[in-house]
């Protein structure tokens, strides 16, 4: 009763249901407290099985808001197959408007494969990887840059598994209709949801859909279109549910981060002023920004220069920075043939 994670979901029932994953965790305020993670199910017979999740990091809002709206709008009679929706998967982090859970400082996207006897975030990760993910064909985990970071709007997959599987992931990623597609290199044992999906035998798709701890009409529009495109592409629905115009996939520029030289880090306390924003195309040696020191007003601000060429994929939003903070990152544009050749 005091460990594990339990639920009363029946995966064979058609229709629409709203339930909870319950994780017992005794706290000062409430000896028999349970973390309640909302879980929505919509099912209509057999067909594609899709898991949609957001709130892996609590302060990334496009997915959280749109997956709630999707659950309210989805009509079971108009789908084929089943969809499980977790709009606030690390619920304590969402309620605290934080990246990590305040209960255990758990970062869910660094907690896989989890631990059934661990703290709440690790028990949740264990349940997702070992019990929930394997019941699906596709897992779509919706992220953004969070409170501290601006991010280029991009779909994301990890380079996992066989070339055939990678090819299917690339195809599904392109179908989202996002302007950029980021192919991450985290390895088979990575603590991320995408590596967890690969270990669970499920196709994992993710993306960074905004940032700054907020949403905009633009970020909501392309996230809505990406969710609709995914559901239509896998055959779960035949018309958009969240976006008004008929979705039309755009050309997608593929990007990779594969070297620490692509990032500029703070090496001491300072204040970061960017010279370029996300989306800028830069050459090696170009000015990335300036690092000011408000405690040494007689010192020139330091010029920061890119070591590698590419497209600026993320930058820190908080000016105030400490040693170890990533200030700005530049990704390398790549072609699909190059990615598939490396997987072979
Ligand atoms: Zn995230």
Automatic annotation (TrEMBL):
Signal peptide: none annotated. Residues 47-231 form the Succinylglutamate desuccinylase/Aspartoacylase catalytic domain. Keywords: Hydrolase, Metal-binding, Zinc. Coiled coil: none annotated. Its cofactor is Zn(2+). It holds the Pfam family AstE_AspA_cat. SUPFAM superfamilies: Zn-dependent exopeptidases (SSF53187). PANTHER family: BLL3975 PROTEIN. This is Succinylglutamate desuccinylase/aspartoacylase family protein. It comes from Azospirillum endophyticum.
């Amino acid at each position: 009763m005091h460990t594990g994670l339990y639920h009363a979901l029946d995966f064979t029932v058609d229709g629409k249901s709203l339930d909870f994953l319950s994780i017992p965790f005794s706290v000062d305020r409430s000896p028999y407290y349970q973390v309640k993670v909302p879980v929505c199910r919509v099912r209509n017979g057999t067909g594609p099985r899709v898991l949609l999740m957001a709130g892996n990091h609590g302060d990334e809002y496009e997915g959280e808001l749109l997956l709630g709206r999707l659950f309210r709008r989805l009509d079971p009679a108009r789908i084929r197959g089943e969809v499980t929706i977790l709009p606030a998967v690390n619920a304590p982090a969402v309620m605290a408007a934080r990246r990590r859970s305040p209960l255990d400082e758990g970062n869910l996207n660094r907690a896989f494969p989890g631990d059934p006897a661990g703290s709440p975030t690790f028990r949740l990760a264990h349940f997702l990887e070992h019990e929930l993910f394997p019941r699906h064909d596709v897992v779509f985990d919706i992220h953004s840059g969070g409170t501290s970071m601006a991010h280029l709007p991009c779909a994301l997959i990890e380079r996992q598994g066989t070339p055939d599987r990678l090819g299917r992931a690339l195809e599904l990623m392109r179908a989202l209709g996002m302007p950029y597609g980021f192919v991450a290199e985290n390895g088979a044992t990575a603590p991320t949801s995408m590596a967890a999906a690969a270990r669970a035998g499920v196709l994992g798709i993710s993306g960074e859909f905004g940032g700054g701890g907020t949403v905009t009409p633009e970020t909501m529009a392309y996230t809505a279109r990406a969710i609709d495109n995914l559901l239509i592409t896998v055959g779960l629905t035949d018309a958009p549910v969240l976006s008004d115009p008929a979705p039309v996939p755009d050309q997608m520029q593929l990007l990779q981060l594969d070297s620490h030289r692509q990032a500029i880090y703070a090496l001491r306390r300072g204040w970061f002023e960017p010279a370029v924003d996300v989306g800028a195309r830069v050459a090696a040696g170009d000015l990335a920004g300036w690092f000011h020191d408000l405690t040494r007003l007689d010192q020139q601000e330091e010029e920061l220069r890119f070591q590698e060429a590419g497209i600026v994929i993320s930058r820190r939003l908080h000016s105030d920075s400490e040693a170890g903070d990533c200030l700005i990152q530049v990704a390398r544009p790549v072609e699909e043939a190059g990615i598939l050749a490396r997987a072979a």
